[in-house]
Amino acid sequence: MTSTSAAAAARATVHGYPRQGPNRELKKAIEGYWKGRVDADALRATAAELRRARWQQLAEAGVHEVPTGDFSYYDHVLDTSVMVGAIPARHREAMAADRSPSSRLLPHSQLRSSGGTPMRRGCPLDGYFAMARGTQDVAPLEMTKWFDTNYHYLVPELGPDTVFAADSAQQVAELTEALGLGLAARPVLVGPVTYLLLAKPAPGVAAGFDPLTLLDRLLPVYAEVLGDLRAAGADWVQLDEPALVQDRSPAVLNAAARAYRDLGALPDRPRLLVASYFDRLGEALPVLAKTPVEGLALDFTGAAAGNLEDLAAVGGLPGKRLVAGVVDGRNVWINPLEKSLATLGTLLGLAGRVDVSSSCSLLHVPLDAAVERDIDPQIARWLAFARQKTAEIVTLARGLAQGTGAIAAELAANRADLASRAGSALTHDPAVRARAAAVTDADGRRSQPYAERAAAQRAHLGLPLLPTTTIGSFPQTAELRTARADLRAGRIGTAGYEERIAAEIREVLAFQEKAGIDVLVHGEPERNDMVQYFAERLTGYLATQHGWVQSYGTRYVRPPVLAGDISRPEPMTVRWTTYAQSLTDRPVKGMLTGPVTMLAWSFVRDDQPLGETARQVALALRDEVNDLETAGSSVIQVDEPALRETLPLRTAARAEYLAWATEAFRLTTAGVRPDTQIHTHMCYAEFGDILQAIDDLDADVISLEAARSRMQAAAELATVGYPREVGPGVYDIHSPRVPGVDEATALLRKGLDAIPAERLWVNPDCGLKTRGWPEVRAALENLVAAAREVRESL
Ligand code: ZN
Known about the structure:
Elements: H1 3-8, H2 25-34, H3 40-61, E1 65-68, H4 76-83, H5 89-95, H6 126-133, E2 143-145, E3 152-154, E4 157-158, H7 169-180, E5 184-190, H8 192-198, E6 200-201, H9 215-231, E7 236-240, H10 250-264, E8 271-275, H11 284-289, E9 295-299, H12 307-313, E10 317-327, H13 337-348, E11 351-358, H14 377-380, H15 386-402, H16 408-422, H17 430-437, H18 450-461, H19 478-488, H20 494-515, H21 532-535, E12 539-542, E13 549-552, E14 555-557, E15 561-567, H22 574-582, E16 589-593, H23 595-600, H24 610-630, E17 635-639, H25 654-669, E18 677-682, H26 691-696, E19 701-704, H27 712-719, E20 725-728, H28 741-754, H29 773-793
Parallel strand pairs: 1-5, 4-6, 5-7, 7-8, 8-9, 9-10, 10-11, 16-17, 17-18, 18-19, 19-20
Antiparallel strand pairs: 2-3, 12-15, 13-14
Helix pairs in contact: 2-3, 5-6, 9-10, 13-15, 17-24, 19-20, 24-25, 28-29
The structure holds zinc ion.
Zinc ion (ZN) binds next to loops.
């Protein structure tokens, strides 16, 4: 095909679309099903209707080929485990009532005959949800982050005895639904290599087991699914291989080559599109280009923009279909259409056919920016959620196929919107910029080295050995949630709300004093969320009303948007912290969310380097830290639970990230006196990659998640000679279990193997907001008793 006819054939598509529906109907139906208020048929009907509405909307917007199989009741990786029959042994029994696990997800009308066994009403989805959430008797699959996004998937559990078996029912049913609407549809599957790379050894299997060794067993199952989809009318099938954008060994690259050579050699199969996203495909690009697959989908946004030159370097994809992800699928900004058209124009010379898509599934962005009412319309023009992104993709495809004249109006509007953003006072606050530009290395350094600070803090705080503390939040009770709802609905006024907060703080303080905790917290009752609370108080940060994004299962979050230059019009936490301090003689920790976590759990600016945004947030937080100190706080904690999770996927980019991330933390905290003690906190373990960075934060005390791993984090820090104080958690707050005194004592003794008594703290793994008061009371009393016991034995 010549490039002119390649252009004329350009089509619009997306890799996937938000699942929840305009009013989170899916979440409501599923949670209703769990509570027994919605029956299985009603849930399936809601799901089918949401899928139909979504496809229709995409088609009406001008999308030529809609995705299928991107829907899920919980998680698409779990769906893949069902599709390949990788059901953990402990769950098989729960599912034994029916032969086909995925048929549990289908309307009765679409079920193949299941050997005469009638389906029982109300129970067919239960085995699936049991794998996702666990039951009283059976533990769920582990959950972890999907690459560097905030979406979480259920980790496949595999072992040498895993027997795969194809179950294509759900994929075939969805394809059939979409084809039935008269649409061109493309099933989207997690690819076999990525599926295995995301898996972990099943419980009881040696940790050294490499799931990739199962590839030869898995490929025939994919072959069968592809055959079923072909028989059901699939022209193209997309296989997602995002795991190939990370640094991979020759063995993994060979596995990818083999997988797509073998699948490509199947006699009667759909055409195959292998998709990658989130970073450049790198060494895997020439590997995949050489396989017989008919198309590749590549990300051309952000860190992945280098795919363009890589593609040229390998001589393009002659004769193949290239699906060009030029619209950022994981951020919320309008697309620079002319720049994208230029990229697409270059790509035309590099492939047999070029289609336009999002960089990845639109699952990672909210549904529709047009329903936001509280965002200034001048700023709302800069935002593109899934609906708006779809329109951009369609526009770009039209521009590519028919020339820019065909989209002149869209280009003019886009130019104006981009100019409005670039020239806005919100994105360019001269005072913020001048301050950030004037930062020196000294601003990010404490005035004295740690040893001297530690002595000053010891004298100032007068804490016992093995001091006890908590991580910040106390139970977010139903009363607190009601109070917030009452305030929003106008049933109570600000004064009434604040009195409830004050009463809660009094109770939290009284409990901690009585329990004998040494460094107290106010309990964070006034915070809806540890990022949103600050976003609502900083200029340049936007909160959305309906910007829900799936975090996992039926849990959706509304990440705020870092839209402009960041400044702090007034103190954000000083009032409640000083109120709490006024109630006690013991130190009360000031409690802030750190700059890296603020970025990680928000949508970030794409018009300046991340490090610059981090620096602006850090300077605003620095003022808060200094104000807390002035108001009398001697201990201030700056939480950075997300430091590890924003680590770039490619190792080459990590040093630069860690440099600006640790600088932002130090900038936040370095302005205090030597005798003011700076704490930080991290959870979501696996600190192995960032031990040096943790040291570079130069915090006086760090509390870490460590109870489940039996103090592993403390041991790891000790191996790099970490010189400061450490509080490895001795209370696993993810479980309703109350640790006994003996258990906490044993963990503390283990902690002492790694960290000397003068530098060891006693605390839970994380905040207590998700726990109930009875457990928290008992657990903290035990924790104090354990600290006393170990102290006395020293
Ligand atoms: Zn935590």
